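Dear all,

This email documents one entry for the complex benchmark we are building for the journal club exercise. For each entry we list the sequence lines for every component of the assembly. Then comes the predicted three-dimensional structure of the complex as a token string, followed by one or two observations. Please use this as the template for your own entries, and keep the labels exactly as they appear.
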Amino acid sequence: MAKKRTKRARERPVLSGGRKSVLVVLFVPSVERDGRTLIDQHHWVDAALEMFGRVFGGATAYPQAKGIWRDDERGGALVKDEPVVVHCYTTPVGIEDSRNLAELGSFCRTMGRQARQGEIGLVIGDEYFAIRGFAEE
Amino acid sequence: MKTELDMDKIAGGLGAERRGKVSATGGYFGAMQLLAEIEARFRVPAGGGRATDPRWTERRLVPLAPRTLERLEAITAKVREHDGVNVEPMQLAALLLEKTTEQISEDEAKELVRPRRRTSR
């Protein structure tokens, strides 16, 4: 026979934070801006998962894909890449929280600077955001 | 109802430039995402057998409507035929269940299990 649940257990919220209806997509690159020098992609995928887990409660990294990026600041040079796409579902409140945004932005700038990128791309909801200018920091 | 996000606030908080709308919504049940998820997560157990997610350690009997099972069978058959990815109907059910429970809110869950009044004839 099944045990009766205590009142305390029934009242405890099991699903905190609302509906995770906002998809955040981060592209983790495989090469530097020159298109040739490999970066430590495993390290950045692990770091991204850790950050998303801590800040938003979870994420999924998909297998390596094929990508291309046009670097307009270098005469439109095409940078071929094998990015890992990381998906994270969060709540509208979670994504608009200034501390969460600061952590996510800081992670993107650190990755952009250390992995020598021209741009770090993020899709949040139905909009693309570009983070640039890492060298200035 | 779709929640409107304050995209300017998000861009400001990130220190990012808004570059415009994307057409794909990234809906979870998109076939490509589902395939990628299966390929990323499923592993053949050390002792052999069918590939599965190693984190799925709990087993329960889940009653289903025949129509639901037929739908799961049809989707997995299509995935196998077109993409060569072997996934069993109940593995697909586990994946969908996991994602839905991650996304549903407390209020939606309460609404779902709330007893409904039947209309009397």
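Observations: Chain A touches chain B at residues 13-23, 25, 58, 60-63, 87, 89, 92, 95-96, 98, 100-102, 104-105, 108-109, 122-132 (CB under 8 Å). The beta strands of chain A are 22-28, 60-61, 67-71, 77-81, 84-90, 120-124, 127-131.
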